[in-house]
Amino acid sequence: MKVTSIAAVTLLAASILFSANLTASSADQAGAQRHQVPVDSPLRELAKRQDLLIGTAVDHAAFTTDTVYRDRIATEFSSITAENVMKWEVVEPERGRLDFTAADELVAAARRNHQGVRGHTLLWHNQLPAWLTEGVNSGAITPTELRQILRKHIFDVAGHFRGKVYQWDVVNEVIDDNANLRDTIWLRNLGPGYIADAFRWARQADPKVKLYLNDYNVEGLSAKSDAYYRLAQELLRQRVPVDGFGAQGHYGVQFGFHSASEVMTNLRRFEDLGLETSITEVDVRMLMPPDTVKLQAQAQGYSVLMQGCLLARKCTSFTVWGYTDKYSWVPGFFTGEGAANLLDENFAAKPGYRELQAVLALAGR
Ligand code: XIL
To answer: Is 45 tagged catalytic?
Structure first.
């Protein structure tokens, strides 16, 4: 097992190098252009040559108060995702009162910086407004009414951002860790058809945006990613407008990673169904404190996801879930863990950052 995966990684590295050489020698023009971007360039410039959008989740509070944080987003990334401010509890804090103020600020900044925006997320079981969850729990909101509320939400939000986002996470985390449909207020009250409904409504609200399934623990081949594969197959069979499959990429060095070839194989099977793919929320956490071994392992975690994406045929965006350890959701959610991002608290590059630069510079897509 071990030997096989080492061999696979070596082969993979060789094939990346080989294709990089091929491109450089067989097409002088392209080769010349490739050499114009030094390896020590911002990620967005390196990713551009690979036809890949490279993004980060943006913490709106930090964005408005920390100019170093804000400026680096502009130079380093070609895509952004609102870390929280497009979520339902933020955009409709009281029933019927829509508030897109914070999200609109991020969208406007992205436009100024020539960045794309990934929409996150139209339907999830977390960060729902209290009026909604309490209404459902008390029975004040009936299943029929809940379906209408969900429909209106998708039309409101996808409609508001129509033409301004290039991908939407239409449904987020709808399959659980046992590879079954997740037990949520959506499944309990609306039945499994809510997923197809959500995609159809999103398509009506914004005809051009790419509509995504998105989840964690689906980067490699597993019962959970198999369940997504079957779900995607079934939705497509029913002519539901699904365009993409997003693997979040929340890794931890203490758990190990998939090989790049396994990530590639997984993404490619979704692409073979006709979908595009993206890596949507990468971070690689570790037990605190960090040390050189953990930081090196972390770089490997970022690397396999980037390599898997580049080796797949239609992996269109690679987004990190925050880019500096100064602002990260990890310490607040995983006790004793942290240091999950590419830059440290002082915005200094960690090995993971250098690794992504090197992989992007080497790749011959
Ligand atoms: C997280 C944010 O980073 C936190 O700030 C927030 O408190 C909770 O949500 N999967 C997702 C993201 O799809 O929306 C989550 O973001 C992280 C896990």
So the answer is: no
Considering only CA atoms, which of 249, 88, 248 is closest in space to residue 154? Answer: 88
Residue 76 annotated as catalytic:
no
Other Cβ atoms within 10 Å of 144 Cβ, number: 10
Give 178 Cα–ligand 1 centroid separation in angstroms: 21
The DSSP code for 94 is B
* pLDDT tens, residue by residue, 201-215: 999 999 999 999 999
Closest ligand 1 atom to the C-alpha of 329?
3
Higher pLDDT, 230 or 2: 230
State the pLDDT at residue 23.
Answer: 40
Model pLDDT, residue 365: 67
d(CA 18, CA 38): 19
Structure tokens at 201: 């409504």
- Write phi, then psi, for 209 (nearest 5 degrees): -65, 150
- Whether the per-residue pLDDT at 65 is higher than 70: the answer is yes
Phi/psi at 70 (5° precision): -65, -45
Q: Cβ distance 242 to 210 under 8 Å?
A: no
| Predicted structure pTM score | 0.92
CA of 329 from ligand 1 middle (Å) equals 7
212 lines ligand 1 (CB under 6 A): no
Angle, CA of 87, 212 and 98, to the nearest 5°: 25
Interval 307-342: pLDDT, tens? 999 999 999 999 999 999 999 999 999 999 999 999
- Helices (H), ranges, 312-350: 330-333
Catalytic annotation, pick one of 76, 276, 281, 355: 281
- CB-ligand 1 contact for 172 (6 Å cutoff): yes
Side-chain-facing half-sphere of 178: CA atoms under 13 Å: 4
